[in-house]
Amino acid sequence: MSQQDDEEREFDLRWADRAEQREPSARARMLAARWKENPPDPAPFRADPGPVAPRRSSWVSTVIVFGCVAAVIVLLGYVQTRSPY
Question: What is the pLDDT of residues 4-30, one digit of tens each?
């Protein structure tokens, strides 16, 4: 892109920014038409979050994982000692 193209583009952006009226986006026009016929239910901007279940601490999850791994190792060792081969 040449310097002249950059200057023309900058001029076009300044000209567009100074526009007195701006056309809404296609999505805004679509929603306005839809809401004319069937307006949305009112909703708060940020609804209060529902009750949150307490989270387990990370060390409890770690203990559970290591406990399961240890149980599998013990189970495999027991099966191996019981096999006749």
Answer: 566 666 667 777 777 777 788 899 999
pTM across the whole model: 0.35
Give, in order, the Cα–Cα distances in Å from 34 to each of 4, 20, 40, 42, 68: 44, 26, 9, 15, 54
Structure tokens at 46: 């940020």
φ/ψ of 2, rounded to 5, equals -85, 170
- CB contact at 8 A, 10 and 18: no
Burial string for 40-70 (b: 16+ CB within 10 Å, else e) reads eeeeeeeeeeeeeeeeeeeeeeeeeeeeeee
